[in-house]
Amino acid sequence: MATVNWEREPGEKIEEFVAALLLLRHEHANHITPARGDRGVDIQVWNPDGYDFYQVKRYPRPLTARQATKIQESWETFVRETVPLLPVRSWTLVTPWNPSNPRLDWLRELTAGQGFPTHWMGGRTLDAMAADRPSLVDYFFGDGGERLQRLMASALQGGRDIAPGVVGEDLLDAILARHRGLADALNDVDPFYRYELDIRTGGLGDLPWDIDIRPGSPVAMVQYRQLDAERYQVMRILPRHPGVMHLRPITGTLRLEVNTGSPEHLALEEFSRFGAPFQDIPGTVIEMSGPSGLARRTGAGLFTFLAAPNSGNGIPDLDVRLVSTDGRVLHTLELVEVEAARGADGGPGTWICGRDRSGALQFRFFLHGPDGHEIRILTGPLTGKTPAEALPAVRMAAELVDGNELLLAVRGGRPITCGWAVSDSAVRANARWHVSLLEALAAIQRFTWERVTIPDVDALSDGHIEEILRTGRLLQGERIETTWTQVTLTVASRERLPTPGVEAALIAETPIIARVGDREIPLDAKRRVIYRTARIADPAEVTSAQAGDTIRLLPGSTDHALILAIPTEHEQ
Question: CA 109 to CA 104: how far, in whole Å?
Answer without folding.
Answer: 9
